[in-house]
Design goal:
140 residues, disordered N terminus
Length: 140
C-alpha cells in the first residue's frame, strides 16, 4: 500500500515499471479534478432529485389525464431516474477515489493489487482496476 511522506502531506502513489514517480503537483491536480467533479455532481444530483420529485408529484395530479400524457410523463420520469442513478454511481466512484487518496490505497488495482498505472489514472482518475483486470471483467 502507498504511504504518506514524512510530513504526511502528499501520498506516495504506485507506478508501473518505466513510469516516473508521481509529483506533488500531479497528485494535487488529480485531487483537484476529483474534488471539482464531485462538487459538480453533488449539485447535479440535488437538482435532479428536485426535478424527479416534481415529476413524481405531477404524476399524481390530474386524474383523468389523457393516457398519452400519462405515458409520456412515465417515460420522462423513468429517464430522469436512470440519469439520476448514473450520476449517483459516478459520485460514489469519485468519493471512493478521494477516500483512497486519503487512506493511501489509491492507485492499486482492487482486483490484483498491482499498480493501476499513472497514465491510466491521469486519464481516468476514478479507475479502480488496472487495464488487464478491467479487460477481463468486460469480457465476462
Amino acid at each position: 500500500m502507498a504511504s504518506k511522506t514524512e510530513s504526511g502531506a502528499v501520498p506516495i502513489l504506485p507506478v508501473l515499471d518505466g513510469e516516473d514517480p508521481w509529483t506533488a503537483e500531479e497528485v494535487a491536480e488529480v485531487r483537484a479534478e476529483l474534488e471539482s467533479e464531485r462538487d459538480r455532481l453533488r449539485m447535479a444530483v440535488a437538482h435532479a432529485d428536485a426535478e424527479l420529485a416534481e415529476l413524481m408529484n405531477e404524476g399524481s395530479v390530474g386524474a383523468g389525464r389523457d393516457p398519452a400524457d400519462v405515458g409520456s410523463s412515465n417515460f420522462e420520469r423513468d429517464q430522469e431516474l436512470s440519469l439520476l442513478n448514473n450520476q449517483k454511481r459516478l459520485l460514489a466512484q469519485i468519493e471512493q477515489a478521494l477516500r483512497m487518496l486519503d487512506d493511501g490505497s489509491y492507485g492499486y488495482c482492487e482486483n490484483c493489487g498491482k499498480p493501476i498505472g499513472k497514465l491510466r489514472l491521469a486519464a481516468f482518475p476514478r479507475a479502480t482496476m488496472c487495464v488487464s483486470c478491467k479487460q477481463r471483467q468486460e469480457r465476462r
